[in-house]
Amino acid sequence: MMPSATFSKTFSSNKIARAVFDALSPEMDNTHEKRAKTAVRVKNSRVSFTVKGSDSASVRASKGTYGQLADFLKSLEN
To answer: Structure pTM?
Structure first.
């Protein structure tokens, strides 16, 4: 079984959540994620991330990266 992690961020509106999704989507197609893959979904004002990797270190690293990106984008709301 591959290690995985799921987390989400809630934004102030559906429109902002969609903009965050659109901003992060190009990263999902990049080949730089060699040991872990991240999927992003948006539903209403919530953006959800699912990270699956070959080992727990790669999952942790991807979760940290996407979590920081989402936190940064959330900070721009204010």
So the answer is: 0.86
